[in-house]
Amino acid sequence: MAEAASPPAALAAALQRIAPHLEQVERTMRDQLASEQPLVGLMGDHVLSSGGKRIRPVLVMLAAELCGYTGPRCVQIAAAVELLHTATLLHDDVVDLANLRRGQAAARAIWGNRRAVLVGDFFYARASSMIVEDGDLDILWIFSNTIRSMAEGELLQLESSFDPGVTEALYYKVIDRKSAALLSAASEAGSILGGVTRAERRRVAEFGRELGLAFQLRDDALDYVAGEAELGKQPFTDVREGKVTLPLLLTLKRCNSAEREQIANVLKTAAARTSELETEGPVEVDRVLSADELSPVVELIRRHRGIEDTDRRAEEHVRRAADAIAPFPEGATKEALIAAADYSVHRAS
């Protein structure tokens, strides 16, 4: 697959058009860092300053545009959705024992797990308050349901860690709840601002869900092919953390019994070493499995086309995303949304 170095023209034009609103989103998020506890501001500034694609605020705004709304409520909703995403990052890094996030030290690596969890809770609370302040009960319901879904997805992934018997159905259940749910919620919230019908809302929500699945599949492929500079973290982090993502899952389905046993032993080693390292303090992922220990797994994934077929599956979800909003009128906004979905599987980081 050829990788795009920059967003396609339709998406770039849309991003330029909504740039002033995205700047307002950034200011609004930072306004939410106000607290009697200085650590909230310090940690919040650290996480927000690390950048990120801000795809969720973009989806809120473009989905609203697609449905005929361009008013000021987009900023508050988009900021709340991104603040919720920021809270999940703080918690995810604790769960995953991650020391890097977007190329810089993870908050837990600087301030510790307990403080990272508590500040994440603060962000959840602030994001929820912003949705309550907006006052739309449909958006509030979507928001609360999404938080539940993401927590269930994280637990489901944690419970299936280091398990070579993970099924494709279970894998999709995890990424649907952990990753796709929030992009679907962002898109549907935008459509609600536009006042469209329930059927149209479902289509826009489905667009966000399919984009989210495609985005996560590409992320899972990149973990095996991109370097630390592109990923902002150590490569091969997923297998070191015991996550059986689609590239490895497809490989396990296709390889022979001796190869499956080899992969199972690597996962068993990673599980035992993680447990041992946790007793010493923060786990450094490169100590869980060495390059030599990882090499056979990476070679098997290459041999059994785990990366190529994961990317191909991601492209199928992009097509479904485009089909979901096909009935909406043609125009620059629709083109931008489809371009965003396509870009999600052609990005290099």
Q: How many domains in all?
A: 1
Which class of secondary structure composition applies to the elements?
A: mainly alpha
| Largest sheet entry | 2 strands, antiparallel
Instruction: Please provide the ordered H/E string of secondary-structure elements.
Output: HHHHEEHHHHHHHHHHHHH
Percent range for β-strand residues: under 5%
Question: For the largest beta sheet, what order do the strands appear in spatially?
Answer: 1-2
The Rg value, from CA coordinates, equals: 20 Å
Name the CATH architecture.
Orthogonal Bundle
User: What percentage of residues falls in helices of 4 or more residues?
Assistant: over 70%
Could you name the CATH class? Mainly Alpha
Q: Can you count the helices?
A: 17
Integer average pLDDT: 93
Number of strands: 2
Uncertain segments: none
Structural write-up:
With 349 residues, the protein is an all-alpha fold. The protein has a single domain, classed as Farnesyl Diphosphate Synthase, CATH 1.10.600. 75% of the residues lie in helices and 1% in strands. Strand 1 (100-101) and strand 2 (104-105) form a beta hairpin. The longest helix is centred in the middle third of the chain and has 28 residues, at 198-225.
Helices and strands in order, then pairings?
Layout: H1 9-31, H2 38-48, H3 55-66, H4 73-96, E1 100-101, E2 104-105, H5 107-111, H6 113-134, H7 137-159, H8 168-193, H9 198-225, H10 228-231, H11 237-240, H12 246-254, H13 257-278, H14 285-288, H15 291-303, H16 306-324, H17 332-343
Antiparallel strand pairs: 1-2
Helix pairs in contact: 1-3, 1-4, 1-17, 3-4, 3-8, 3-17, 4-6, 4-7, 4-8, 7-8, 8-9, 9-16, 12-15, 12-16, 13-15, 16-17
